[in-house]
Design brief:
four-stranded antiparallel beta sheet, 6 helices, about 160 residues, Arc Repressor Mutant, subunit A, alpha+beta
Length: about 160
């Protein structure tokens, strides 16, 4: 039986929460640096981090890249409304999102839209090619609505602990 979020986090103490906040800010912190900030020995900090990783609370460690320095000038959110709702169409559309490197996030939704996609493209022409050449031709897609990001005022904030 899968644990609910309340069940899966009830065993976290304040030190665990502080450790998680620290590594959300900088995942490269060493056990020594974590120990100093948490008033623990390096080995205690390392064991806590290993436990949080083993429990699946810490799922990955990633580098945060600067999209503009990589030539990605357009961020957009795209809402997709499906014309037909079959298991096969949902599976095919999910596979399409995984194949497209410009699509960096995809969610199913309640409400009017069925999917929300987060995309990064080099420019508006590339965004147009994605929408016109990839998304709209999908046989189950009825409507595509794009919103281009003008400014990132709170990008990818750490999770609240």
């Amino acid at each position: 039986m899968e644990a609910t979020s309340a069940q899966s986090t009830h065993h976290l103490d304040e030190t665990d929460r502080r450790l998680l906040a620290l590594i959300q800010g900088d995942a490269t912190l060493t056990a020594q640096a974590l120990g100093e900030r948490l008033n623990l020995s390096a080995s205690q900090a390392a064991r806590r981090r290993q436990r949080l990783e083993a429990e699946g609370i810490v799922r990955a460690t990633r580098a945060v890249l600067d999209p503009q320095r990589l030539g990605l000038g357009v961020e957009a959110f795209i809402q997709i409304v499906m014309a037909t709702h079959t298991e096969g169409n949902a599976r095919d559309f999910a596979a399409l999102t995984r194949r497209q490197p410009e699509i960096v996030g995809a969610w199913t939704l309640t409400g009017e839209a069925d999917y929300l996609l987060r995309v990064w493209c080099v420019d508006l022409a590339a965004l147009n090619r994605l929408v016109q050449g990839v998304l709209l031709p999908h046989p189950a897609v009825s409507r595509v609505q794009s919103q281009i990001v003008m400014d990132r005022i709170k990008p990818d904030a750490p999770l609240p602990l």
